[in-house]
Every structure is written in C-alpha cells, then in structure tokens.
Write a structure and sequence with these properties.
By secondary structure, the protein is mostly helical. It contains 1 helix and no strands.
C-alpha cells in the first residue's frame, strides 16, 4: 500500500523515526534517479 502520510506507523517504530518523512525523501530521490535514466 502507499504511504498517505497519516503517521499511523510512527508509534510502531521502535526507533521513533519519522517514517512518512523518510519515505517521502527516498521516493523523491527515486524519482530523480528514474528521470535521469
């Protein structure tokens, strides 16, 4: 499923990471890489 940024995953993360923000950053990097191909 896609991340909607709702933050429901944050309480389940044992490292207290900002999961939605991390996913967005990584997806943006992926789009840049894909566009360069």
């Amino acid at each position: 499923t896609r991340c909607t940024g709702c933050g429901a995953c944050k309480p389940r993360c044992p490292y207290d990471l900002p999961i939605p923000e991390i996913l967005k950053q990584h997806y943006d990097l992926f789009k840049q890489h894909a566009a360069a191909q």
